[in-house]
Amino acid sequence: MKRVILTMLFALSFISCNKQKNKTYGIFTVSNDGITAKVEGTIVNKTLEDFKNVLLKFPNLKTLNLVDVLGSDVNDSKETDLALELGRLVYKNNINTHLVDNGFVAGGGTDLLASGKKVSVGKNPKIAVHSWGGGFDGNPNGRAWDIKDDENHIGHQKYLHYFQDIGFSKQKAKDFYFFTIRSAKEKNIYYMMTKSQINKYLIR
Known about the structure:
Order of helices and strands: HEEEHEHEHEEHHH
Helix content: 40-55%
CATH class: Alpha Beta
CATH architecture: Alpha-Beta Complex
């Protein structure tokens, strides 16, 4: 009898663990009610596909709670575009973003935070920005820092379009984007956005 009970408990525990595992998709961990998802980790090549699966299985998702998103680690410019598509998908699906108390985002994580239909932050937010590297059309070694004062350069266009696609006005997209790339070189980082900068550029 004890063996039967232990077997049943093990089975229930196994099923419970599987259910819990099934709610984690890469950097996204969905709440039991499917309304919120915790975001923790680095945006990688498969993160966009992971998020599409989340949307498919949890159509009532309303808020992404960002905990610690250090940025993106992708292979090339094509994958970088996929990282930007993640933010577009968040905005298109009317999903809000919230940086939790003492949460930290940087680089691509900051771009993801910006993509919320509504954007909010908790206490002691840590939001970092920097310019990008990896080249642009005609210059595989080009860096944003090299063209930071040429606001009409083609290398800026996909990022300016990104911010407009996630609800920024043309002027606000320009202001925030050039603030980020003029803050620090790609191998450095600007710590941290001030409360006034967060309110000016991100909160909505």
